[in-house]
Design brief:
By secondary structure, this protein is an alpha/beta fold. It is built from 5 helices and 9 strands.
């Protein structure tokens, strides 16, 4: 698994992850198999990593799509800007379910379901509802 908890920005060529200031941008064109080191699951804890320029035939061409194209089987990404603390609360639950042997889609679902009571109590449901699991693996 590869998890990147960083910031994302929009650039003229599309979305990019900020790894080390403005010179440390990782854009969609920079993502390839060598970056994955064999990881089948990628978790992008940054804003709007599933969004990007829309191709009329292919859909959004964002960072999540780039990681799938590089060989990741499953990517957990965000559709819009998210609050760091809210995403940080969900990710440990996903990890717990993965460690228990659940497949990524099931771990993602269970982690979100566990967070619903707390999110509805404090009105933060929309803060993490933008998380999305995208998979190229059947039955993930």
């Amino acid at each position: 698994m590869l998890q990147l908890d960083v910031h994302a920005v929009g650039t003229p060529s599309g979305p990019a992850l900020v790894l080390a200031g403005e010179e440390g941008l990782l854009g969609t064109g920079d993502i390839g198999p060598q970056l994955l080191h064999g990881a089948r699951l990628v978790v992008l804890g940054a804003c709007a990593t599933a969004a990007g320029p829309r191709d009329p035939l292919e859909g959004p061409m964002g960072l999540a799509r780039a990681f799938l194209g590089a060989g990741a089987g499953t990517v957990i990404a965000t559709l819009w800007p998210v609050v760091d603390e809210d995403v940080s609360a969900i990710l440990p639950r996903i990890h717990r379910h993965l460690a228990a042997g659940e497949r990524p889609a099931a771990a993602f679902r269970e982690a979100l379901l566990e967070g619903i009571p707390a999110a509805t109590d404090d009105g933060a449901l929309g803060d993490w509802a933008g998380l999305q699991l995208v998979s190229a693996d059947a039955g993930s």
